[in-house]
Amino acid sequence: MSALVVTAADEPYAALAGDLIASLAEHRQTLSLHVAVLDLGLEAASREALASGVDHLVTPKWMFKPHAKFDADPKYLARAARPFLPELVPGYATYIWLDADIWVQHRLGLEWLLDASRGVDLAAVPTMHRSYSFSQRDMGWLHKRYAMAFGDALANELIRQPYFNSGVMAARAGSTLWRAFADRFQRALDRWNGNFLSDQAVLNAVIAMDDLRVNRLPARANWLCHLAPPLWNENAKALVEPAMPFDPLLIVHNTYDDKRKERSIRTLTGQQRTTQLTRSSIQRLAHSESQ
Fold first, then answer.
1. CATH number of the domain that 199 lies in?
2. What span, in angstroms and rounded, lies between the C-alpha atoms of 86 and 92?
3. 106 falls within a domain
4. Residue 272 forms beta bridges with which residues?
5. Phi, psi at 286, each rounded to 5°
6. Which parts of 39-76 fold into alpha helices (H)?
7. What is the pTM of this model?
8. How many domains are there within the chain?
9. Of residues 164, 163, 168, the one with CA closest to residue 104
10. Coil, strand or helix: which one is 27?
11. What distance in Å separates the CA atoms of residue 193 and residue 150, rounded to the nearest whole number?
């Protein structure tokens, strides 16, 4: 059976989702991939444009108990829908989730996710790399989201565990992940204290507390740009890790708050390039240097 890549977008994320879908196109036949988009508030033109490049365009509904805050705003469904991917779009052997601000630079990233999800409950990428730099803001952000879901005592325990970014993950349809994820999500909702619904906090609690079998992939399978800007390899025309041996990034995650802001990135020869970190912008950069 084939695998399904799922992402989600509202109107502000429509162009980013389009970039992601475009980055998958050349790999779909080789890897037997299908693609689905969860519509969280797309305008008609964007919905039509995205639908032309995917197999499924789904408008999800709130799957948990009624919640006065979260089921009133479609944007929260991007997080709340993730425990239910096999139910929302049934019929696939493996489900890969990719956030809309992600794009695939190299097919190997997708191959790793598919291979790593076999025989385990989850394939994901811990937020660990020798180049990453964590600020007090980063750690405070994480602790706050744990505390909103589980309270301060458990947050203090979880903050000491390796942290997985939920923007890139893969699991078999029959994985125990889905039920454990949904159960802990509902328990978090039942006691929620805060203004932000973080599936990422819940996912990490499931990993730490529910004995999931997890295959941990290297950081270049989900490169978090705000923690360490990538370098530009002028010869390969590709973004690479900012440390020896400068391996190419496989999946680029534009985790900056402002996805469209131009960034200054360094080349392997010490020069500077100014570009957005979207796929479209990186393609333009590569094209300009090929002239």
1. 3.90.550.10
2. 7
3. yes
4. 266
5. -65, -40
6. 44-51
7. 0.95
8. 1
9. 168
10. helix
11. 9
